Amino acid sequence: MNERILELFQETPEAYVSGEEISRRLNVSRTAIWKHIEELRAAGYEFEAAPRKGYRLVSKPDRWQVNKLLAGLQTKVLGQKVHVYGSVDSTQTIAHALVASGAQEGTIVLAEEQTAGRGRMGRAWHSPSGKGIWMSIVLTPRVPVYFMPQLTLLSAVALCRSIQKVCQVEIGIKWPNDLLIKGKKVSGILLESSGEDERLKYVIAGIGISVNLTTEDYPEALRSIATSLAIESGQVISRELLVQTFLLEFEDLYALYMDKGFAPIRLLWEALSVTLKRPIRTSTPSGFIEGIADSLDDSGALTVITPSGEKIKIYSGDIEL
Ligand code: BTN
């Protein structure tokens, strides 16, 4: 409903829209309208209300509200230092540069917009202004380089759980780390690392969440495969609340991982997976594989059982469900 109210205001930008008109066109009561306007205000939309004229949309929440973000942050390390930018090529590039100039673990980089957002496997990541969480996190895990896939799966679990908490949508993880709602991608993770003598020097965890995009914000080619939290939940989502919730979830899981290893993370991942026990297809350098996705192994690889009963492990790449 909030989406539809916003669309109505966007038909005649800067004009007042009366409560009566909203009520008639959207078939909702005046009390319900007031409730939705209050929700939109909480998400950062500014409205002016005038007697007999109605409401006017004054500004949209297209700027990170850093004070609000910091005020509600309950983490000890993640997000204790925040760098916020308007338009950047990629928050990953900025985060790498910050590490080179001494940035500590937990530093985060947020941008309103990315002009060259990077996805996995050399793809681009659509990152329009003010609509999403385009964030990079500096991590310095004391684990060997070959543990990177585990950290990727941990990030997916943290993302999935935080989105469930904030948006109450049915969301699941497609191996290794795509978050899907009704089969469409809503969020992605890109981990980039620098290692020395087989140990990780640092990791930049790039998190992309399509939060408040409308269908029109997507290019035609993405509309059938991508979606946003606002489209799926019917609500405008507070980006600040989602970042706070995600960072806390990530910090807790990261502590659990450092203490107990990958086993508990693997169980959580399996419970949220939309991949396991389903038929999948994937292409690998040595050919095309089809089979049933069976389980995750300790390294984070996906075991697939082919129609002939052979067990094949997939370590990287993309799968089709
Ligand atoms: C994927 O392909 O699923 C991964 C997408 C990762 C996108 C995020 S947005 C913030 C960070 N900066 C980037 O350029 N990419 C990551």
Automatic annotation (TrEMBL):
Segments forming domain BPL/LPL catalytic: 72-258
Catalysis: reaction(s): biotin + L-lysyl-[protein] + ATP = N(6)-biotinyl-L-lysyl-[protein] + AMP + diphosphate + H(+)
Record flagged with keyword Membrane: no
Keyword tRNA processing carried by entry: no
Superkingdom classification of source: Bacteria
Family matches, as SUPFAM superfamilies: C-terminal domain of transcriptional repressors (SSF50037), Class II aaRS and biotin synthetases (SSF55681), Winged helix' DNA-binding domain (SSF46785)
Keywords of this entry: ATP-binding, Biotin, DNA-binding, Ligase, Nucleotide-binding, Repressor, Transcription, Transcription regulation
Residues within the DNA-binding region(s): 19-38
A molecular function GO annotation: ligase activity
Annotated PROSITE patterns: BPL_LPL_CATALYTIC
Binding-site residues for biotin, renumbered to this chain: 114, 118-120, 185
EC number, as in UniProt: 6.3.4.15
Enzyme class: ligase
Pfam families the record matches: BPL_C (PF02237), BPL_LplA_LipB (PF03099), HTH_11 (PF08279)
Record-linked PANTHER family: BIOTIN PROTEIN LIGASE, BIOTIN--PROTEIN LIGASE
Function: Acts both as a biotin--[acetyl-CoA-carboxylase] ligase and a repressor.
Family membership noted in the UniProt record: Belongs to the biotin--protein ligase family.
UniProt-listed HAMAP family: Bifunct_BirA
Protein name: Bifunctional ligase/repressor BirA
Organism: Paenibacillus marchantiophytorum
Chain's gene name: birA
